[in-house]
Amino acid sequence: MSKLKTRSSAAKRFKVTATGKILHKKAGMRHNLMKKSGSRKRRLSIPGVIKNVEEWHIKKMIPYKF
């Protein structure tokens, strides 16, 4: 059987924790940061967890991180 290829775009965007959860960066921290409150910016800086519904899509894209 041939090897599976990792999608490099997905490998750069997602991180897998030791327990198997998939983390992603939240949107909204690129520009217009002056008008956003500090609490909102702190909340956006914390990585988000991918929902179980979307998990299998990402697992297919990055097969060797699991």
Write structural notes for this entry.
The chain has 66 residues and is α+β, with helices and mostly antiparallel strands. It has one domain (8-65): Factor Xa Inhibitor (Irregular), CATH 4.10.410.60. 36% of the residues lie in helices and 12% in strands. The chain contains 3 helices and 3 strands. The protein has helices spanning 8-13, 38-45, 52-61, and strands at 14-16, 22-24, 48-49. Strands 1-2-3 form a 3-stranded antiparallel beta sheet. Strand 1 (14-16) and strand 2 (22-24) form a beta hairpin. The radius of gyration is 15 Å and the shape is elongated.
Unreliable stretches covering 5 or more consecutive residues: none
Q: What series of H and E elements makes up the topology?
A: HEEHEH
Largest sheet: 3 strands, antiparallel
Number of helices: 3
- Whole-number average pLDDT? 96
- CATH topology, by name, is Factor Xa Inhibitor
**C-alpha geometry:** elongated
Span of the ends, CA to CA: 19 Å
